[in-house]
């Protein structure tokens, strides 16, 4: 059973989730490119002094390069996974959709952790609660996008499912050939 039949964004509506795969891939690739750009900006001495920024607690001398390198590698792989997602739907290979779904699940859990981290460590600042709510709205949108991709995965799985044919009663599991005695 398919979870979603259509896909809706604040600006566009798609009748089928299959037609929304290209915009989903473009969205994730663009967001990944923006985060790579921000990571490089922080690694070259850019500003990350507000506690709601992703690299607030990173040391500018060592940890920013380690975690920044991991983030850049992750988001480059996410961009490649977005390309694989589009190709997977075009040629109907479900396995190529899995890297994108795994990356999105990792991203959703990271946003959930980051929101709880902000809430626990910086609960006295009211703007932190607002930043956490915005982060979790974005996380819920990413969950919706993940469900749309999973629905396309289910649609492709239904198309590729083998069809079963019911044989006549004369066939049993022990007979190799059907023998008609009337002939």
Can you characterise this structure?
It is a single chain. With 183 residues, the chain is an all-alpha fold. It has one domain (7-160). Helices cover 61% and strands 2% of the residues. The protein contains 4 helices and 2 strands; from the N terminus they run ββαααα. The protein has helices spanning 21-43, 63-91, 98-121, 126-160, and strands at 7-8, 13-14. The protein has a two-stranded antiparallel ribbon. Helix 1 (21-43) packs antiparallel against helix 2 and helix 3 runs antiparallel to helix 4 (126-160). The longest helix is centred in the C-terminal third of the chain and has 35 residues, at 126-160. The relative contact order is 0.12.
Describe the SSE topology.
Layout: E1 7-8, E2 13-14, H1 21-43, H2 63-91, H3 98-121, H4 126-160
Antiparallel strand pairs: 1-2
Helix pairs in contact: 1-2, 2-3, 3-4
């Amino acid at each position: 059973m398919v979870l979603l039949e259509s896909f809706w964004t604040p600006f566009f509506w798609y009748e089928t989730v299959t037609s929304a795969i290209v915009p989903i891939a473009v969205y994730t690739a663009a967001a990944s490119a923006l985060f790579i750009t921000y990571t490089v900006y922080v690694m070259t001495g850019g500003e990350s002094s507000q506690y709601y920024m992703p690299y607030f607690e990173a040391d500018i001398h060592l940890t920013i390069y380690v975690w920044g390198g991991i983030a850049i590698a992750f988001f480059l792989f996410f961009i490649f996974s977005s390309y694989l997602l589009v190709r997977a739907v075009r040629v109907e290979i479900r396995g190529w959709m899995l890297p994108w779904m795994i990356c999105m699940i990792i991203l959703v859990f990271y946003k959930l952790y980051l929101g709880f981290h902000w809430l626990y460590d910086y609960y006295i600042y009211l703007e932190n609660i607002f930043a956490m709510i915005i982060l979790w709205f974005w996380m819920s949108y990413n969950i919706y996008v993940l469900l749309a991709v999973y629905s396309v995965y289910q649609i492709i799985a239904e198309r590729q499912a083998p069809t079963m044919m019911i044989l006549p009663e004369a066939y049993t599991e022990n007979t190799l050939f059907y023998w008609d005695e009337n002939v």
